[in-house]
Amino acid sequence: MVADIKTLSTLGITLSAAFASTGSAAQVSTSQPGEVAYASTCASCHGGPSAVISRTGSLNDPATQAQLDRFLARHYTRNAEQRRAIIDYLATLNRR
Length: 96
Ligand code: HEC
What we know:
Blueprint: H1 2-10, H2 15-18, H3 33-41, H4 43-46, H5 49-56, H6 62-73, H7 80-94
Helix pairs in contact: 3-7, 5-7, 6-7
Bound molecules: heme C (HEC).
Heme C (HEC) binds near residues 72 and 75.
């Protein structure tokens, strides 16, 4: 967790924004690229990822992932690689 805090601080992200609605920083365990991208791109508006996941439906479904990919292309994430990373990250949380 210390490593994550360092990573996020380096990027100038406030932890309060990144973890605002997860309620628990401990849920975020590894620093995957998608986690970092989520924190820097989405968290300022959406808070923690659980709020977003509750809107997307099950990301275990490839069709839902494809739908989210199309949505994010118009929604703050024009970079396809970054979309992939964020979707993978959200899908990982979804499976827990
Ligand atoms: C500048 C603020 C802002 C940023 C940055 C932002 N969003 Fe959003 N997002 C919104 C708003 C506003 C809505 C619409 C909320 C509503 O309908 O109540 C929304 C809606 C959504 C929805 C719901 C779509 C639906 O069809 O219901 C998802 C999923 C989503 N955002 C994911 C993301 C992800 C992932 C990121 C990061 C790549 C992101 N957002 C970045 C403001 C933002």
